[in-house]
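Progress against Task 2.4 (sequence-to-structure conversion) is shown through the following example record, which the project officer requested during the mid-term review.
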Amino acid sequence: MQVIGQQEVLADISEAIASMDQPTIDGINTWFVSREARRCGLTVALSGVGGDELLQVYPSFRQVPH
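Structure tokens generated for the chain above:
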């Protein structure tokens, strides 16, 4: 397991934010996890990000069409 420390986050946060194409809550976490996965040699990684929206698990998602 790779631990990303505070200093590394602070050093790379500008690059992470510059990589975003839209506002996001999970984007920073996803950026760091994706970077570390790539450093470990992975070219594909799956996550659950977006699953809430896809499966409409919150009542408010079902209210939107109305």
